[in-house]
Amino acid sequence: MTRKICLVIIDGLRNDTARTECGYLAAAIEGGQARAWTMQACLPTISAPIYETIHTGLAPVEHGLLSNEAIRSSPHANIFSELKAAGKSAGVVAHSYFHTLYGGTAFDPFEHVEINDPDAPIAHARYYSMAGYSQSNPAMPSEVDLCAQAWAIARDAAPDYLLLHTSSCDTLGHFYSGEGKEYRIQAWKVDNALSRLIPRLRDAGYDVMVTADHGMNADGHHAGDEPCLREVPFIVFSEAFPAAPEALLDQRIIAPTVLTLLGVEPPETMNTRIVQ
Questions:
Q1: How far apart are CA 50 and CA 46, in angstroms?
Q2: Which CATH number characterizes residue 221's domain?
Q3: Average pLDDT of the chain?
Q4: Is the CB of residue 168 less than 8 Å from the CB of residue 190?
């Protein structure tokens, strides 16, 4: 069976919170179905810059996207562009930032909320905007709905690379802090939804990687260099991932590792490698 990969980004999930609150992921690790590492996020610990880091293998000071307010179409070789050039396919269920970065144009909710187009930069996509959310009404997509959308893409299109990105932990962390019960409970809700998705993906032939872009501090903020912001989980459902058990992983390894596992030679710009 040809290898396929699903990357799950749980936005704003601290490493310590993942280990204490995500019971399904902990059970998979304890039962030998998955392995876990600590990954160090790049600086600044801000979402859009790190989405670009995860997909280009470049630190923010290298790729030039340094804030959410400066988001633009990625000018760098990235997972999506390299897979497209190699004749492989991708699918996405994610925040609208990912369309602006990798979908070819700025996001328009009336045009881009659902994409099924083999000629598009990302052939199969479901995007959400979270437009209008506030502390009094922190509305966000249901975790189960997002997982179900990801499964529908995997079932119907079987892309080589599938990205699932959920924003709810980040949202609740901003409202209630990275030490609030609402944030911790939301981490479990994401984990609980993944317990319904990951076994299906594994049965369908997907290796699964679960990580976060950054953590969340006691002020309900992220951007800086605190351990609670830089230390994120990296949990792998695959025997093919070769890192040493105690390695502290660099976030820049994700893009070249995904491409290598999918049989695509990473470009020279993706030059950070796994510590073995």
A1: 6
A2: 3.40.720.10
A3: 95
A4: yes
- Tokens matching residue 92: 């996405």
Q: Which amino acid is at 130?
A: M
- Number of domains present in the structure of the chain: 1
Residue 276 domain-assigned (yes or no): no
How long a stretch of residues is the chain?
A: 276
pLDDT tens digits for range 191-238: 999 999 999 999 999 999 999 999 999 999 999 999 999 999 999 999
- What's the confidence (pLDDT) of residue 275? 65
* Residue 166 backbone class (left: φ over 0; alpha: ψ -120 to 50; beta: rest): beta
> Could you give the CA distance from residue 189 to residue 143 in angstroms, rounded to a whole number?
7
H helix count then E strand count, the chain: 12, 9
Query: In this predicted model, what pLDDT tens digit does every residue of 177-192 receive, in sequence order?
Result: 999 999 999 999 999 9
36 close to 231: Cβ distance less than 8 angstroms = no
End-to-end Cα distance, the chain: 26
Residue 35 phi/psi, 5-degree rounding, is: -130, 155
* Alpha-helix runs per DSSP H in the chain: 15-21, 23-30, 47-56, 60-63, 79-85, 97-102, 109-112, 143-157, 168-176, 181-203, 227-230, 254-261
Domain extent for 99: 4-261
Q: Which residue has the tokens 């319904």?
A: 196
Alpha carbon 163 to chain centroid distance? 6
Identify which of 20, 13, 41, 11 has the alpha carbon closest to the alpha carbon of residue 140.
11
